[in-house]
Predict the 3D structure of the following.
Amino acid sequence: TVDLAPVVDQVKQRLVDSGMTVARKIPEVHTDFTVVRSDDIGKVRTYFRLLQLAGLWLPVVAVLLVTSGVLLTTHRRRVLIVSALCFAFATFLLSVALTVFRFVYLDSLPAAISQSAAGSVYDTLTRFLRTSVRAVVALGVVVALAAWLTGPGPRAALVRRLWHSGIGAVRATADHAGL
């Protein structure tokens, strides 16, 4: 449950501070708003703590395993590219799972609960996770691309030559324009 009395007190104080002295007469209100009602809250709390622990250590273990795999192989660049892409793909699957779970969560709620409010709560709770997922996917793709571009392959060499000639063309055009 959530007690709304501190919120009412803060609003009342802001009204008084802004010059509305009548707000002092607003009585103290203790309204409890029930968020979740369950007999299994102890189990849920335990599972939530386990998920927090796994969320902290699983990425560290995964990075250590990828690093050791890259260092122990003879084809380091290829293993780094595949590992970075697999890491990005696995993280992308987490993003898909979060989206699917949102619909499952909203569909499993009783009809008395506001779907938009529950959706907002879910979105707020997963906002930072979604941002982190996007960053990890981007990082995986950038690492794989950088490893591929620094490689000795003919396609990577072609991309590097095109990149250098493109920059040279832009530089020459800027010099010609007096920049």
Q: What stands out?
A: The first strand starts at residue 2 and ends at 3.
